[in-house]
Amino acid sequence: MKQGYSKPKALLFDVFGTLVDWRGSLIRQLRAFGEARGLDQVDWPGLADAWRGRYAPSMDEVRSGRRAWTVLDDLHRESLLALLPKFGLEQRLEEEEIEGLVRGWHRLDPWPDVSGGLARLHERFLLAPLSNGNVALMANLKRHAKLPWDCILGAELARHYKPDPEVYLTAMALLRLAPQEVMMVAAHNDDLAQAQALGMQTAFVPRPTEHGPNQTTDLAADGAWDFVVASTEELADRLCDNGEVDLLRG
To answer: Which Gene3D superfamilies does its entry note (predicted)?
Structure first.
């Protein structure tokens, strides 16, 4: 073990993209919905991508103070309603169907390595999400994807969206842990950059197909993160061993 290094007491995880395949899950759900409703000609992958494309801009309205605090479920709903005309659906969906599609974000499937990796990490560390998803969304996602959380942390408790520092600081305060006792695990370099700036430990888990086959961002680590691993299973290998920890940098 490198001199001065101490393993964390808690691991906080980004969720969308890092632990669950939001794109593949949404496309599967949307296609199934379209088949059931006879809407086979709709560009469902395009709708999934456009929906996610409004994710950051909708939160930026809250981050900037241009609008009051609004939970992600409501932002997702507004974004979907704005997109329906573009995909020829504005007059074709009932209110309960729209609500069902929004709830699809509560039923995202995990990446293949997540179940085994988190189960092993849970034996040694306190685990929690640190997501922009609201508490109800995270609670339902925990049950659907069988994520072994000890508690639910994230944006709604801080009333800020990542990467605002308040999200990370609120989580650490609630856990009563110092930054160096907490590790942020994410597939997004900007998430880790904010965590590291606040003194947290960091681990990068790339998800090169999060945004589909033509993804151009977050394909590799672009910072000096404490760990760079290929999967949550590899992170468990590195953190749960009984020997020395060989930290990867960059």
So the answer is: 1.10.150.750, HAD superfamily/HAD-like (3.40.50.1000)
For the domain covering 22-106, report its CATH number: 1.10.150.240
Is pTM beyond 0.85 here? yes
The answer to whether 2 and 234 have CB atoms below 8 angstroms apart is: no
Question: 159: which residues sit within 8 A by CB, 6+ positions away?
Answer: 69, 166
- The domain 10-21+108-240 having CATH identifier 3.40.50.1000: the answer here is yes
State the Cα torsion 125-139-109-201 to the nearest 10°: -30
Question: Cβ(24)–Cβ(145) under 8 Å?
Answer: no
The pLDDT tens digits of the residues spanning 152-165 come to: 999 999 999 999 99
Q: Is 195 exposed, middle or buried (0-12, 13-18, 19+ CB in 10 A)?
A: buried
Q: Is the peptide bond before 110 cis (omega within 30 degrees of 0)?
A: no
Please report the beta strands in the chain, taking only residues with DSSP state E, as ranges in sequence order.
Answer: 10-13, 126-131, 153-154, 182-186, 201-204, 227-228
Spell 61-83 as b/e; 16+ CB within 10 A means b: ebeeeeeeebbbbebbbebbeeb
For 56-75, write each residue's pLDDT tens digit.
999 999 999 999 999 999 99
Q: What are phi and psi of 133, to 5 degrees?
A: -70, 145
